[in-house]
Design goal:
Blueprint lengths: L15 E3 L11 E5 L5 E8 L21 H8 L3 H13 L3 E6 L4 E7 H8 L4 E4 L5 E4 L5 E3 L6 E5 L8 E2 L2 E2 L11 H5 L4 H7 L12 E6 L6 H11 L5 E6 L14 H14 L4 E6 L4 H12 L8 E4 L1 E4 L5 H17 L2 E5 L17 E2 L7 E10 L6 E6 L1 E3 L2 E2 L3 E7 L20 E4 L2 E4 L6 E5 L2 E6 L4 H15 L8 H5 L5 E2 L28 E2 L1 H10 L2
Parallel strand pairs: 12-14, 12-15, 13-14, 15-17, 17-19, 19-25
Antiparallel strand pairs: 1-8, 2-6, 3-5, 3-9, 4-5, 6-7, 10-16, 11-27, 16-18, 19-20, 21-22, 23-24, 26-27, 28-29
Length: 540
């Protein structure tokens, strides 16, 4: 009789070693006490790809024939052998495997703080933030067995500090009467008005398309959506929520994240009212953010072709493992024919860091993301034409993001874009942000409805769903989604109306100015919708 196989123990996987890129400083908060040892926590373990995507996805050409989600999972998801090994490691450390996805290359494990601290060799403490919130944090690297260090790409969820900011700004005071500032109303736009001004296709509604929206807080009320679209004379789009990692559709008030959620839904839906809109709600942590994106990307039921992201933070605030895992997810989006649109930030070249250096916002800085910058838009007296459009820069805390990435190298598609060196050192030429722009100044902002109130909201948050809506219109006209459009649009810059006036300098001596051609304030400029449609349908 053959001996029974010996059960693997934690020691069977070898000694713990630091997981490269997982290092993190302690939270900028007051250490309170060690986290409760018996608290149960879910942790996301992200695994390597079965094979490289480089042969299919390059930065110099669009993906000719996107993969189906099932083909992607089979060819480029995690391997069964890797999934089995990591699951065995979890079991050996008394952790429960609560979810597995080959396509997302994800295993979610659950355990107590004591079990997770032992399994990943890191101390977890509770910290009190300045606003009174209690969070769980860590310092240093996550540890994994040496036999798994090349298999595990990242470990997320041990630390639950807030990761991103919503990039929207309400114009003027939020009146308790529910009436927006009259001056703001006189200089604001509805999505259909912008569609006319920006020459978007008028014979499409986005029918048959799904726009995914990533939200890290707030919520929506169906009554507000119905009232808003009725006021526009449009049939309200189908809107539904998908809850990720315990996220909730939890509307509160207009001063919170509800403004972001409703702005995104109403702008995307106002441009493409025939599209289905699916909102993926997740906690505001690097784990929640990543899981929401990968859930949307590999959603075989809703199958979004465009993903709009209006949350982010400076590259400096992310761990290398997070930057890598997110960027790989965006590369996967290119392989699947899914376009990612992300806001470039709302505080200019500083990007809310405050260290007297220029910064760009992530995930907008990923070379596989369509980074969306902001303008100030003024129309002719009758409102039917554009009299001027300049870089959005009203103050040091109200200006479009943009600049040169400290993390990602200049992509091939920007080879002829005259991307300048970083103003920080005058040497590094990295990924230039943004790619495109549209109106974002709250003083010439978007008319929206939030929690029963009519408000005017701006920010680059509005540009991401605006572009997502336009791409949904174009996708409706094509036999397949446009996907990774960067090589196409950089090869045809006249598709965009160049913005040549203004700057985004919010750090003394460190910022960028608009110039002829691509610049680090408004990218290629503002898309002419009809021209972009012709370009992207021609290359199909």
């Amino acid at each position: 009789m053959s001996p029974l196989p010996r059960k693997k123990t934690a020691h069977s996987f070898g000694p713990l070693v630091p997981l490269p890129g997982s290092e993190r400083p302690a939270p900028a908060a007051t250490a309170s006490h060690p986290a409760s040892s018996d608290e149960l926590v879910n942790v996301t373990i992200r695994l390597r790809r079965r094979q490289s995507l480089s042969a299919l996805v390059s930065q110099s050409a669009s993906v000719v024939k996107p993969l189906t989600r099932s083909d992607y999972a089979r060819q480029y998801g995690a391997s069964p052998a890797d999934m089995r090994l990591v699951s065995e490691f979890a079991t050996a450390n008394d952790l429960s495997v609560v979810q597995k996805s080959t396509a997302r290359r994800t295993i979610v494990v659950r355990g107590t703080i004591a079990q997770l601290s032992k399994a990943f060799g890191t101390a977890l403490n509770d910290y009190r933030l300045a606003d009174g919130r209690l969070i769980r944090g860590r310092e240093g690297a996550v540890m994994v067995p040496d036999s798994l260090v090349t298999i595990i790409e990242g470990v997320f969820g041990l630390d639950n500090r807030p990761q991103a900011r919503a990039h929207f700004q309400i114009y003027g005071p939020v009146y308790t009467t529910g009436v927006a500032n009259p001056r703001a109303v006189a200089t604001s736009f509805t999505p259909p008005q912008l569609a006319k001004l920006y020459n978007y296709p008028a014979d499409r509604t986005g029918k048959g398309q799904t726009i995914a929206i990533i939200e890290l807080g707030g919520g929506y009320r169906k009554a507000d959506i119905a009232a808003y679209f009725k006021s526009l004379g449009l049939t309200a789009p189908s809107v539904k929520a998908v809850l990720v990692d315990g996220g909730k559709n939890a509307p509160g008030d207009a001063n919170g994240a509800d403004g972001e959620v409703m702005l995104d839904i109403e702008v995307a839906g106002g441009i493409a009212p025939g599209a289905n809109i699916v909102v993926y709600f997740a906690p505001n942590t690097d784990q929640g953010f990543l899981d929401a994106i990968t859930t949307a990307l590999h959603d075989v039921r809703n199958k979004p072709s465009v993903i709009s992201i209006s949350w982010g933070s400076a590259e400096k605030s992310w761990t290398p493992q997070a930057l890598n895992s997110f960027n790989q997810a965006f590369q996967s989006a290119a392989a699947l024919g899914v376009t990612i649109c992300a806001a470039a930030g709302d505080t200019g070249s500083d990007d809310s860091v405050g260290d007297k250096l220029a910064h760009v916002d992530f995930p907008a800085s990923s070379p596989f993301v369509l980074a969306c910058g902001g303008t100030k838009l003024l129309t002719t007296a009758d409102g039917t034409g554009i009299s001027s459009e300049t870089v959005w820069h009203e103050s040091n805390t109200s200006a479009t993001g943009g600049g040169i990435s400290d993390v990602f190298d200049k992509p091939d598609y920007q080879a002829d874009a005259a991307v300048p060196p970083s103003v920080n050192d005058g040497k590094r030429v990295g990924r230039g942000v943004p790619d495109v722009a549209a109106v974002a100044d709250p003083a010439t902002g978007y008319t929206v409805r939030v929690d029963g109130r009519n408000l005017v909201i701006g920010g680059t948050s509005a540009v991401a769903p605006l572009m997502a809506g336009l791409l949904a219109l174009i996708n409706e006209q094509r036999s397949q989604p446009v996907g990774f459009i960067h090589p196409s649009i950089y090869g045809a810059p006249t598709t965009f109306r160049d913005i040549t006036q203004g700057d985004n300098t919010t750090v003394a001596g460190k910022g960028y100015s608009a110039t002829a051609g691509w610049d680090a304030c408004t990218g290629l400029g503002v898309a002419d919708g009809q021209k972009l449609t012709r370009l992207l349908t021609t290359v199909a």
